[in-house]
Amino acid sequence: MNNILTIGIAGGSGSGKTTLTRVLAQRFPMHAVILNHDDYYKARDDLSYEERAALNYDEPDAFDNELFCEHLTMLRHGYDIRCPVYDYSEHNRTAETRLLSARPLVLVDGILIFSDPAICDLLDLRVFVDTDADIRILRRLMRDIHERGRSVDSIVAQYQNTVKPMHEKYVEPSKRMANIIVPDGGENVIAAEMIISYIREHLGI
Known about the structure:
Layout: E1 5-11, H1 17-27, E2 32-36, H2 49-53, H3 65-76, E3 81-87, E4 92-100, E5 105-109, H4 117-120, E6 125-130, H5 133-146, H6 152-171, E7 180-183, H7 189-203
Parallel strand pairs: 1-5, 1-6, 2-5, 6-7
Antiparallel strand pairs: 3-4
């Protein structure tokens, strides 16, 4: 498969990067595949649930970036992959894998993808979604309660102990690696349409 375009979409937790990723994928349903960095959290079968729950999941070392880069490289060269499946309620990778078929447009979604130079080198376009902290924490609260089975207390504790300090240490500085900075994520219709036009021109569709 030739002319494959890889676009990385990064930003803080709750910034709207996943919404923007979905908007782009929905506009190119026959051409796009989404690769989620979150699926590549390291497997921690050696730890108890309580120990896994106490880990810092907002630093680069929490991810298996070696496998992630291997799989992204395969998609870039037109090869299908079987990506890991992560269970947020258990804070651990499952034994299952999911087939991702190679397509002309690879959308890469993750908070820390721009903090790793090896990942950046595999991205043709890097988009950072920039959203105010108060909006991000509210979105994260609602998402983690309804989609990931977390309690309010655990969400607040995790935000104060790791999410906020790691955002300031890793995520925010990675913004300088972006080619495009998008305020308000998937709700920014003008920015989304600009990226869509770029995709159409690159893929010739």
